[in-house]
Amino acid sequence: MEHYICTTCGTQHAESEEPPKACAICGDARQYVNPAGQGWTTMARLRRSHRSSVAREDGGLIGIGMAPDFAIGQRALLVRSPGGNVLWDCVALLDDGLAEMIHALGGIRAIAISHPHYYTTMVEWAHAFDAPVFLHAADREWVMRPDPAIEHWEGDAREIGDGMTLLRLGGHFAGGTVLHWAGGAEGRGALLSGDVLQVSPDRRHVSFMYSFPNHLPLPAATVRRIAAAVEPFAFERVFGAWWGLAVRADARDAVRRSADRYVDLVEGNGPVT
């Protein structure tokens, strides 16, 4: 029996003798099935074919990724905090060397994940560090490997301690979540956004999409609501889902400006070409 992992999205599934016939997450309109066909791997195979990559991202943040890139290619963030470290988002590979390093840094007291595309092997991480996984209840149907370590929270905000608050923004997924870290950016605040708020290549804007790979936009009203939901919170920086993608100054204003720009375009008030 194996916990098979989808090679396109990185999601680990419930234990089975044979690989599942399909990955429900990839079959959804926000993702895609590999044109070459559904593929599967396992944690043991990943440990042979890939290695963990680790780098300091910012004060108190450590980026965790995989090399070579796997599935969607995101990197997770370990938030170091006096009250205990928090893992934000997840990657599929957890090997002995990485686990040893994280334990040496104080372990993980909680795991929080922005949306189903980054659930990956969250249960493996939860078991390795004896940590709960906080997921929004609106995305419960996308959990492919249920486990008692998963805590489904409801509402629009959930404090997880040490000045960290999960905010449900929706948009990309109904339970799409960002993490507000009041102590980030040297006390000026930071948002860890996955791609619920997608940091743009210019590092001065963010964007909002129902599906990034399939280029499906969100309605203007949804983007207005997302921008309004983060407006009460102070944050100087936004950290996206990939290495180096961060708005490092005036991020709260960048989200406001980005939402206005997006709404103008989808409502037909943008540049005429």
Separation of the first and last Cα atoms: 56 Å
What integer value in Å does the Rg equal? 18 Å
- Total helices: the number is 7
CATH class: Alpha Beta
Within the CATH hierarchy, at the fold level, what is the topology?
Metallo-beta-lactamase, Chain A
Content of β-strand: 25-35%
Form type: globular
- What is the strand arrangement across the widest sheet? 3-4-5-6-7-8-9
- Indicate the mean pLDDT: 97
Task: Characterize the structure shown.
- The chain has helices spanning 24-27, 43-49, 96-104, 122-129, 184-187, 220-230, 251-266; strands at residues 5-6, 40-41, 51-58, 61-67, 76-79, 86-88, 110-112, 133-136, 150-153, 157-161, 164-168, 177-181, 190-194, 198-199, 206-207, 209-211, 216-217, 237-240, 246-247.
- With 273 residues, the chain is an alpha+beta fold.
- It has one domain (5-266): Metallo-beta-lactamase, Chain A.
- The chain has a seven-stranded mixed sheet with strand order 3-4-5-6-7-8-9. It has a six-stranded mixed sheet with strand order 10-11-12-13-18-19, with helices on one face.
- Strand 7, helix 4 (122-129) and strand 8 form a beta-alpha-beta unit.
- The mean pLDDT is 97.
